[in-house]
Amino acid sequence: MSLEVLMVIGFLLGAYSIVGNDAIQTLGTFLSSNSHRPWWVLWLFGGGILTVVLVYGWVVYDGDVSYGRLTAIEVPDHFTWVYCIPPFVLLLLTRGGIPVSTTFLTLTVFAPKALPSMLIKSLAGYATAFVAAIFIYRLVTRGLESRFRQTEGPKSPWWVVAQWCSTGFLWSQWLIQDLANIYVFLPRDPVTRIPDIPVEWFIVSIVAMLAMQAIIFYTHGGAIQKVVLTKTNTTDIRSATFVDLIYGIVLFLFKEVSKLPMSTTWVFVGLLAGREIALVWNGRHRRRRDVARLVLSDFAKITFGLVVSVVIALLLPYLHELTHTH
What we know:
Structural class: mainly alpha
Radius of gyration: 20 Å
Largest sheet: none
Helix content: over 70%
Strand content: under 5%
Number of helices: 12
Shape: globular
Distance between the termini: 17 Å
Order of helices and strands: HHHHHHHHHHHH
């Protein structure tokens, strides 16, 4: 099988599985709180931002649609079929509704030595989102969340504007963080390690990602959406606005601190965990035992994803060497 075909397979598998896993964690509250709107309206909004972010990175960063986040990821001497296995595994886990870190699962295979640094940054992201959510929902939005749960929904159109703005901001920050996980499969300069993609490949990649995002929107998020729906009041557009805004700010801060890729999944899970704990702390929420079980369950899932990532990263090179030898 030719090098180009393998790269295309890896890119398509990665794009679909990553968009289906991480993107739903980013757009999950947006989808759930706007479920009454036609799916294609939501897709046009998300797809428009996706196109703008990609074209902006292509133009401003001289073709680097990863916004510099692939400079720490080595370019393999020979692109082989083993690099297509992580996105395939991710696709299977996503179908099972497990919020796995695509950063660990995909990029670790290309650069095992970068795993400790990515893990430290991701843990810092989880802790930051966790603490920020507890502080904000405990002290700042305590009265607001209580009122949100007691009323049917906002009548003011300004809440719609606020949520769509916060979602757009969050979606753009997520794309800047996670596009590296997708474009790592396409050609890169061996020295600078930044994507070296012909313009026709770039156009095809945008069309492919828009098509895959359309599938996700048409299916209302798939299995991963259940992670969002199990959390308190995420279908309320007002609550969703705060979740998206906090998530986006945390991603923006870590984007500015370092270009090293990080797990946005861990940030997302940390944010929802801190929010659930703050709500039960406020005293008008589900039982503490249920919340503890929910938080531990989500953390166990992302830890499972980390273990899978490390195992794959360690075993695949040996598997390739074994098959190549024989």
